[in-house]
Write a structure and sequence with these properties.
The chain is an alpha+beta fold. 32% of the residues lie in helices and 28% in strands.
């Protein structure tokens, strides 16, 4: 399976440090985005550790071993290392990170995620969010469906209900998705806090080349205020896929 993919990260307009991390491996079909929490030092360390540990865990396994259990265990392994590190170094106490991991094998997309970094697929049917934000207010989303999208976004923002590395244990959401002829977007909330889904979809449809789509999304998020670090991965199937 061949993919065309690009990634870009930007510090945004208000932050002085970038606490996001990402990984792109088109050969293995492995894509990761993480958004660090816990101050400029802890957040940067946590997101980097999460990406490095998940990559290490996944690359020691055969592609035919990939399933929801494997992805869950990879994220839990990262969680344990981050949690232990924060207990050993008091300057890092309380650090953590969101994470969203995607692995594509043949026509299957495997996902694992914790926090509010997101995975979307783009198809002829439109742009669809495949992950559910782990926010304290997110379970009340149904009660506000009559509100406008901007009002909904403001209502549901707030503390995370889950993050990698913060508590002694973590629950990882996983899913399997039939992935045919679609594009994939992974991103941190620095993008989705600034842009509506229809704005994201328009950019993805306007720019077919992944690197151009990444540039456009980052630019648009910064034009809307860029209040946080912004990281995006855009993947499309290669022409011969």
């Amino acid at each position: 399976m061949e993919f065309e993919a690009a990634a870009k990260t930007d510090v945004g307009k208000l932050r002085s440090e970038n606490e996001d991390a990402f990984h792109v491996d088109t050969k293995r079909g492995l894509f990761i985005v993480a958004d660090g929490l816990g101050g400029h030092l802890g957040g940067e360390v946590a997101s980097r550790m999460a990406v490095e540990e998940i990559v290490s865990y996944m690359t020691t396994r055969n592609r035919d071993e990939v399933d929801e259990r494997l992805l869950r265990n990879a994220v839990i392994s990262a969680h344990e290392k981050i949690y232990d590190r924060s207990r050993e170094d008091q300057s890092l106490l309380g650090m953590g990170t969101t994470v969203v991991v995607a692995v594509i094998t043949e026509r299957i997309l495997w996902l694992a995620h914790v926090g509010d970094s997101r995975a979307y697929v783009l198809s002829e049917r439109g742009l669809a969010q495949l992950t559910e934000d782990h926010m304290l207010m997110y379970p009340f989303k149904k009660q506000g469906e009559n509100l406008g999208e901007h009002q909904q976004r403001h209502l549901y923002r707030g503390p995370l209900s889950r993050a990698v590395g913060v508590e002694e244990s973590v629950t990882v959401d996983t899913r399997e998705y039939e992935f045919e002829d679609e594009g994939l977007l992974l991103c941190t909330d620095g993008l989705t806090d600034m842009l509506l889904d229809n704005e994201i979809e328009e950019a993805l449809r306007t720019y077919a080349a992944p690197h151009e789509a990444c540039d456009s999304l980052i630019r648009m998020a910064n034009e809307k205020g860029g209040i946080d670090n912004i990281t995006v991965i855009v993947m499309r199937r290669g022409k011969d896929a």
